[in-house]
Design a protein that fits this description.
6-stranded antiparallel β-sheet; elongated; 6-stranded mixed β-sheet; 3 helices; 43% strand; mainly beta
């Protein structure tokens, strides 16, 4: 199921005395989050309009309408922020990790071969992502998130179609 609102980060602390908060990004990068003019709390129920934002190291510093002093900013600490999917501009072939986790991983050529479910994803700086696949027996396999392996992602079917490299799913025992 494709969610309308996606978790994107967490307010971890205040910055200064004028209501600015520090946001730890969970979605891509602070630079990506800087492009949003509205964030949401409570899974999309409460809207937060961005007055200003800037990237600081790996975090986003932001001031929201109505949050104009340190006390109000302190009350925001620990809150999880959401973005509206419709506000995100993803290029073709890009997906939110939240949408991929839980997909059934199936052989591209023989759909009766199910390798398991996508359990987690790791980002390897300077390299490709790594997908963690958990099969029904509880064994975990790692596959590279590259075009040679991941052939198609269908969020409507809740499936990822792959063409595994030789030896990826071979059991040595």
């Amino acid at each position: 199921m494709v969610k309308e609102f996606l978790e994107c980060g967490k307010i971890v602390t205040t910055h200064g005395v004028k209501g600015e908060v520090k946001i730890e990004p969970w979605a891509d990068s602070a630079e990506f989050l800087k492009g949003f003019k509205t964030f949401y709390l409570n899974n999309g129920q409460t809207e937060l309009k961005v007055k200003s934002s800037r990237v600081h190291k790996s975090a986003l510093l932001a001031v929201f309408d109505g949050i104009d002093d340190m006390d109000k900013a302190l009350a925001m600490r620990g809150k999880v922020l959401f973005i509206k999917r419709a506000d995100a501009d993803l290029s073709d072939g890009k997906f939110f990790w939240q949408d991929l986790i839980g997909l059934e991983v199936v052989d591209e050529n023989d759909h009766s071969i199910v390798y398991g479910k996508l359990r987690d994803i790791s980002e390897i700086p300077g390299a490709n992502d790594v997908y963690y696949i958990l099969n029904e027996e509880g064994k975990e396999f790692l596959i590279p998130g590259i075009k040679d392996v991941v052939k198609k992602i269908d969020l409507e079917e809740n499936k990822m179609y792959i063409s595994p490299l030789e030896g990826l799913f071979d059991d040595e025992n």
